[in-house]
Amino acid sequence: xxxxxxxxxxxxxxxxxxxxxxxxxxxxxxxxxxxxxxxxxxxxxxxxxxxxxxxxxxxxxxxxxxxxxxxxxxxxxxxxxxxxxxxxxxxxxxxxxxxxxxxxxxxxxxxxxxxxxxxxxxxxxxxxxxxxxxxxxxxxxxxxxxxxxxxxxxxxxxxxxxxxxxxxxxxxxxxxxxxxxxxxxxxxxxxxxxxxxxxxxxxxxxxxxxxxxxxxxxxxxxxxxxxxxxxxxxxxxxxxxxxxxxxxxxxxxxx
Length: 255
Known about the structure:
Blueprint: H1 2-33, H2 37-50, H3 55-72, H4 77-97, H5 102-116, H6 121-141, H7 146-160, H8 164-174, H9 183-196, H10 201-213, H11 217-229, H12 237-250
Helix pairs in contact: 1-2, 2-3, 3-4, 3-5, 4-5, 5-6, 6-7, 7-9, 7-10, 9-10, 10-11, 10-12, 11-12
């Protein structure tokens, strides 16, 4: 009797952690879908603790940290930065566990990019190079990854519109800003993001921003209206829609 009981006990011990991790991941996804990022983070961390070699759990931990950090930026920069750091750590762990995970590389790009917002010119430009490299790696692994296209759009727009002071600083430190960035390329990247997921309001908002910068106001207004008309799919879509409404007022009547 004892060996059989022991075997059953050992079997349960071996099977329970993966089952617990899968259950926590599923519940975490449910919390994420209802925009409860704090609950999602607790569940994803529980899944990662139960199955520490599961890259799927770790990149979800990174996603939750990034979203919580973004929500805190306006009120508690230190807490936001800490969430981004922890998100970066989780994303890098996911990459180490599964180098072929597009989502793992994508969330390294996201968290590093968020951290770059808090840095000065020299560090910001250095980190931007890693953001670009990680987003490009995500696209090598999954050419349909709308998030990676969006990040590259943001990268192109951000580099192309650097202030002359930062460009001068980059010339002194690096001999120039990272080459090849342009608002035109940013628009192309956002258009690709929309191609692969047209339901995300943020893609339309950023595409509109690039179009307006290029003087393509009629197209920009159409994209802003799409941003306003689409249903909410992310926790921060209300902010995206509010910004779209403001931008629409600003460019009304421009030709």
